[in-house]
Specification:
The chain is α/β, with parallel strands linked by helices and 292 residues long. The protein contains twelve helices and nine strands. Strands 7-6-5-8-9 form a five-stranded mixed beta sheet, sandwiched between helices. A hairpin with a 6-residue loop joins strand 1 and strand 2. Helix 7 packs across helix 8. The radius of gyration is 22 Å and the shape is elongated.
Length: 292
């Protein structure tokens, strides 16, 4: 959330920083951010403004200005809008956000997001956590902050934002068919404390009632099933192709071979058949909420 802080016109973002670090392994992202940085520097120098003065005008330090102009930081939309105003660019700088927003998240997340954005059917089995597409911001942040070695606050923000951006799949028209199977144990784990946990369960009920979403719970007191060795994800596309991945099969790598996909579909189908029905699953989540 952006807010005005201190002197008039001084902008601040959630982390008091105007952008994220650039992933050096993301060639396309590096090129885009470097180009935007050069444009900012050229515009600033053209109007004869020193970096220190510009930084003061937009509300950030001189060092951060140099990092963005040098392509080392990914500017956020608020920074670009403010820079456009200060440099009187007539919308040219603000317009660069259209390019920046395409590369602001890690490369792997962008690639997954592209697949989810075009899939007509998405199936996910998750055994250790609540699936990323179902996580609330608070729940996601708590999980990411728990990693060891810990991520920097800046990386935590970027990863949370990237995870939440994938939720646009629920707003697509026509809507894809999406089904989840979640283990009981992660649903009972009070990640982030009681309030965050309750909000997460309430969110599961809200999403699970969408007309294109099926939510199932795998109870702990059930027999062994094919998902005990890890997560499974299957995505199917309009042209009849598909891609899948399983922690416990094919070395965890994405697969597109029809024979291998049939194996994952068999495993996922068995898991769904063994889990509680969608109606029973929503009732189970409601019961968890009632126990708090």
């Amino acid at each position: 959330m952006t807010q005005v802080d201190g002197v008039a016109g001084r902008l601040r973002t959630e982390a008091d920083e105007p952008g994220w670090e650039v992933d050096p392994d993301d060639d396309w992202g590096v090129a885009v951010i470097a180009t935007v940085g050069r444009q900012l520097k050229l515009r600033r120098e053209t109007v004869g403004m020193r970096a220190a003065d510009f930084g003061e005008a937009v509300g950030y330090g001189e060092d951060m200005v140099y990092k963005i102009e040098g392509g080392k930081r990914i500017p956020r939309q608020e920074y670009l809008n403010r820079a456009d105003e200060v440099l009187k660019a007539g919308g040219l700088i603000a317009a660069t956000w259209e390019d920046v927003k395409k590369v602001r998240y890690p490369k792997k997340v962008r690639e997954l997001g592209k697949l989810e954005a075009t899939a007509v059917e998405i199936g996910v089995y998750e055994c250790n956590i609540i699936a990323g597409l179902l996580q609330t911001p608070e729940h996601a942040q708590t999980l990411i902050e728990a990693a060891q070695p810990p991520y920097s606050p800046d990386d935590v923000q970027r990863m949370v934002a990237a995870r939440l951006a994938r939720k646009s799949v629920f707003e697509r028209h026509p809507a894809p068919s999406i089904h989840f199977v979640l283990e009981e144990a992660p649903l009972r784990r009070e990640v982030g404390g009681t309030m965050v946990w309750r909000q997460q369960l309430e969110h599961l009920l809200e999403v699970g009632r969408l007309h294109n979403v099926t939510l199932q719970v795998m109870p702990t007191n059930t027999d062994a099933h094919p998902g005990l060795d890890g997560r499974i994800e299957l995505l199917k596309f309009p042209d009849g192709t598909a891609v899948g991945r399983s922690d416990g099969a094919f070395n965890g790598r994405p697969i597109t071979d029809p024979k291998q996909l049939r194996i994952l579909e068999l495993r996922y189908g068995t898991i769904r058949a063994q889990a509680l029905s969608p109606r029973e699953s929503l009732a189970f989540v409601e019961q968890l909420l009632g126990e708090t």
